[in-house]
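Reproducibility note. Readers wishing to regenerate the assembly model reported in the main text can use the exact inputs given here. Chain order matters: entities are listed in the order in which they were concatenated for prediction.
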Amino acid sequence: DVKVTQSSRYLVKRTGEKVFLECVQDMDHENMFWYRQDPGLGLRLIYFSYDVKMKEKGDIPEGYSVSREKKERFSLILESASTNQTSMYLCASSLGQGRNDVQFFGPGTRLTVL
Amino acid sequence: ELKVEQNPLFLSMQEGKNYTIYCNYSTTSDRLYWYRQDPGKSLESLFVLLSNGAVKQEGRLMASLDTKARLSTLHITAAVHDLSATYFCAVDFDSGGSNYKLTFGKGTLLTVNP
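Running the prediction on these inputs yields the following structure tokens for the assembly.
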């Protein structure tokens, strides 16, 4: 089975702190994604990566950056956390076949910024 | 900009009844995905619809895709309590080269009552 793990299930940080969210997949997937999920807004794509050291902006990249130094690991960075970044963050990965490419999701990290 | 609209957003139904969730999207695509999310859990892939007229069924759920109408439906037959969850549809579109990303609907919260 594909396994996508995230470093924390719950995280509480203070405004202005630098926050790192880590995601690891164990199926040698090419593609990795970071989403945030908010009530009434569904899932919104923050950043994605198609290869090591490659990244592309999603729909809401402002206030975030990412790092992919190894194929299995994709990190989301909040340079200076703000209260409006309180959310559920979901990581996903997919094989990278172009189309017909199911995304597999991690358990999520619920981040609260005080 | 690709828009994906689900309706209804909230659905309360009795056990044993039938109902349909609709997913409309705004841009040409022939790939659509349905996911399920249980409370406090991550997203799980239900169906992948890969062409116009595609129909997939598993248990009491059946999904179909009409690419000409830009519409997918998720039909629930004889609902049971275990189907209570949030259901998301997602549409893929070309983000450049051979890479594709998903745009999600806002989700339909289904509650099945005894």
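We highlight two features of this model. Chain A has no helices and eleven strands. Chain A has a mean pLDDT of 92.
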